[in-house]
Amino acid sequence: MFKALLLFSLLALSAHAATPFLEQTDVFEGGKGASLYRIPGIVVTGKGTVLAYCEARLNDSKDWGEIEVHLRRSTDGGKTWEAAQHIAHHGERAEGNPRKKEGGDKEQTVNNPVAIVDENGTIHFLYCLNYARCFYMSSGDDGLTFSKPREITAAFEGFKPHCPWNVLATGPGHGIQIKSGRLVVPVWLAYGSKPGDHAPSVAATIYSDDHGQTWKSGDIAAPNEGDFTNPNETTLAMLSDGRVMLNTRSVSKASRRLITISADGATGWSKPRFDDALWEPICMGSLTALPQKPGTLVFANPHSRKLDENGQPVPGGRGLRENLSIKLSRDDGQTWIANKTLEAGKSAYSDLTVLPDGTLLCFYERDSRLTVARFNEAWIEAAE
Questions:
Q1: How far apart are CA 170 and CA 112, in angstroms?
Q2: ∠ Cα 326 327 333 (to 5°)
Q3: Of the four listed, 179, 209, 225, 275, which is most buried by Cβ atoms within 10 Å?
Q4: How far apart are the first and last CA of the chain?
């Protein structure tokens, strides 16, 4: 009798665990503290604290301007949130907006925040200044406080022989730590002729093998050549065999995401390929691996394409930033078995992470808000 009751209880728990769910909470709202919040990033610390961070664009929506980095913490899995902190670059200002004819000389752009969770408990945090310099700081108390920023722009000098960049950017989103302990951060570099141009561009990574003390440049992972046009904002994940997959935005005519893989997250990248299942509306996308289920990947971006008057896809066209969708793979991204709409309306950039219990979090842009969605795999796989 006891065994029967135990079996029934286990089956009931299993059924409950498989029940699809979706919960959404607005974390930042435009007009409250800043004109607009953009460029979301999210990580879960080893203690289970959720850190959601973004650009606070104080005066308008543009990529250049008076921009700060703000962060909120959650200690209950993303259900409730502590008050926002203004983190990053509290020291001497570096003013100058080359994209603004008047008034830009007094603006400071703090952009593209990226966090990495270290197995030793440290939270590493990188950000850029005026798309020209990169800084590093860290937290030993789950994001309550951060160390004084330290400039690491020198790490990007290794790219110069291959890409004479004059614009640099980390991420956006998050970085990862791979099996060797290496910290890997996706970056993109632009080498346009006009100040502040974000194209032409290439994608790559920087890395640290000493827990953030020093940083180095890797190889160019996605070049601007042949069929690959202006790779830029990238996201990455570690595959089940320890290799690193880089998933890259571009304006290529294929209108698909670019994929390349490296054994160490820095060198020896495979020739990029287009993933036919992952549409490219020319918008940042996000990727995460589920550590509880090796081989399982989750991807998010606006599942849309630019269509002509006949309803045919326009090669390399800019699709509408709407229909943010979640895709699921069980074989390290070789195939995608589910595609579920998270936000049918206006929606754009996103970042993904996973709680210790396997619950997924997607921190994403919708209208003038940044929202955290909590959901499980069962929700992804459930019919629309």
A1: 6
A2: 145
A3: 275
A4: 40
**What would the pLDDT profile of 215-225 be if each residue is shown by its tens digit?**
999 999 999 99
In angstroms, the CA 231 to CA 248 distance is 6
The pLDDT tens digits for 13-44 are 443 458 999 999 999 999 999 999 999 999 99
**CA dist., res. 345 & res. 182, Å (int):** 38
CA 259 to chain CA centroid, nearest Å: 15
Would you list the domain boundaries of the chain? 31-381
pLDDT bracket for residue 384 (50, 70, 90):
confident
Q: For the chain, give the number of residues.
A: 384
CATH architecture of 31-381: 6 Propeller (2.120)
Q: Which helix (H) or strand (E) holds 302?
A: strand 297-302
SS (H, E, C) 173-242: EECEECCCCCEEEEEEEECCCCCCCCCCEEEEEEEECCCCCCCEEEEEEECCECCECCCCCEEEEECCCC
Question: Distance between CA 257 and CA 334 in Å, rounded?
Answer: 13
Q: What does residue 158 show for φ and ψ, rounded to 5 degrees?
A: -65, -20
Position 383 scores a pLDDT of 85
Q: What is residue 245's three-state secondary structure?
A: strand
